[in-house]
Amino acid sequence: MADSNPNVPDAATGEDYNLSLHIGGLFANMAASTLGVLLPILFAYTTFNAKTTSKIQAAIQTARTFGSGVIIATAFIHMLPSAFGDLADPSLPEIFQEESGYTGWAGLIAMISALLLHLLEFAATQSFFNRAKADRQRQQGRVHAVDRLQDIEGQRGEKKNSAGVNEVDSLYEGKGGFPAGQKSFCQSITETDPSMHIGHVHGGEIMLKNKQTESQIQHPSVHSHDHCHGSAITDQEQLSGIELQENRSREIGTYILEFGIALHSIIIGISLGTTVGAEFVSLLIALLFHQFFEGVALGGRIASLNFRRRSLRPWLLSAWFAISTPLGVLIGIGIRSTYDGESVTALVVQGVFDSCSAGILLYTGLVQLMSAEMNANPVFRDADLKHQVVQFSALWLGAAAMAIVGKWA
Predict the structure, then answer these.
(1) GO cellular component terms (predicted)?
(2) Closest Cα partner for 19 from 404, 337, 339?
(3) Are 41 and 306 in contact (CB under 8 A)?
(4) Rg of the chain over CA atoms, in angstroms?
(5) Angle at 49 between CA 241 and CA 390, to 5 degrees
(6) pTM of the model
(7) pLDDT tens-digit profile of 61-101?
(8) Are residues 216 and 249 both part of a single domain?
């Protein structure tokens, strides 16, 4: 965030404050933010031929990696120094002073924010994992019960009713039973391989009736051959569960990332809304660059979550990012006549918010973006050397570019 502007008090009398220019800056920030965050999402929802899609995905990946560097540099260069400066100002109470207080408030708040986010993400992810594990165990119990039916039938021998149909087929068909085509599939397996057969039940000796069984039998999303051979679904279900868990973990991380970015964006918007004179133009240009590439990083993250096409969540997440900085600018315009960036309240609020945002972006940037998508990503590790060099270069260039912008913003 930009340093407190000594020209702000002049705005109280209407001097040097160009309202039209500030409103134009508000819409310019909204346009840059919207363009950045929507580009990856729109491309992800658009169908191209295979070659074009591959090139677009590579370009989006590179831009997203560049944006990750921007986010990391934003925390290190823009937020932390500003937070340390605000919370060590001589006008603040003694608790912030070196002689009798504590001078590491900015770092402490950032550290606590990162640790709390780590705990929050773990708790949310663990809760989802536990539910997914319980669902898998219930499905396995259903499959084992059907397998047990097969074992019992194998011991008693294969019998057919007068119509030439296994009794288990008629039992299930009579009670809402197998989906259309499922029985014929099982019969085809039996005919192809006599060693694989479907058991049947005599006189209702075994009742396999529970909510999970009924749900799985009645929903065609469960493959018909699951009932023919339970072990055949284990690897597929496990793989699907792992993918679902990974997607859920990325989703939680994206929400955390957006919260940190939005918090910081509102603060820098307020700063832009209260800045006057020549400094406003340089700050506006820096923020347009800043918001665009932050948007690309966030949009790429949203696009990777595999939302359903009719889901509103990717668009709501994009909209919140797009309006966060303009919202801050609007607040700044509204309070320009009373806002004093050098007041104790303003310094403490700005320092605490910047510290929290720094902790959030450092955690998400270093752990979720840089480490998870590169070091811990088997696809990236198996990629060719050229791709790896391009991505590392993009990461460092993004960080370097944002560090340079730190001279003005």
Answers:
(1) plasma membrane
(2) 337
(3) no
(4) 30
(5) 75
(6) 0.64
(7) 888 888 889 889 989 998 899 899 989 888 888 888 877 77
(8) no
